[in-house]
Amino acid sequence: MSELARFFLELGERWQRRWAEARVFEPEPEVGRPKYFITAAYPYPNGAIHIGHGRTYLIADVLARFYRHMGRISLFPMGFHYTGTPILTIAEAIASGDAAVAEEYMTIYGVPESEIKKMGNPLYLARYFHEQSKRAMQRFGLGIDWSREFTTIDPEYQRFIQWQFEKLRKKGLIVRGRHPVGWCPRHSMPVGAHDTKDDKEPDIGQWTLIYFADGEGLVFPAATLRPETVPGVTNMWINPEAEYVVAEYDGRRMVLSRDAARRLSFQGGVKVLREAKGREFVGRAVQNPVTGEWVPVYEARFVDPGVGTGVVMSVPAHAPYDYAALRDMGAVRLIPLIRVEGYGDYPAKEVVERMGIKSQTDPALEEATKEVYSAEYARGYMREDVAELVGGHLPEPARSMVRAVFKMYFAGRPVREAREFISKWLVESGLGGVMYDIMNKPVYCRCGTEIVVKVLEDQWFINYGESRWKELARELVGAMSIIPPEAKPHFYATIDWLDKRACARTRGLGTPLPWSGGWVIESLSDSTIYMAYYTVIKKIRHFGLKPEQLTEEFWDYVFLGVGTAEEVARRIGASPEALKAIREEFEYWYPLDSRNSGKDLIPNHLTFFIFNHVAIFPREKWPRQIVANGWVLREGEKMSKSKRNVLPLDRAVEMYGPDPLRATLAISAEVEQDLDFRDAEARRNAQQLMSIYNLAQRLAQGAEDRRPNWLDMWLVSEVALLLERAREAYEKVRVRQAAVEVLYNAKAVFDQYLAAVEKPSKLAVEAARAWAVAMEPIVPHLAEEVWSVLGGEGFAAKAPWPRLKAEPAALLAKRYVDMLVEDVKKIPAYGPGVKRVVVYVNSNFSWVKAALGGDVKAVINAGAPPQAAKRVVDLVKTLGDEVRSLVASAEGFNEVEALSSYRGYVEKALGAPVEVYLADDPEAPDLGGKKRAALPLKPGIYIEK
Question: Which of 52, 397, 423, 869 has its CA 20 to 30 A from that of 8?
Answer without folding.
Answer: 52
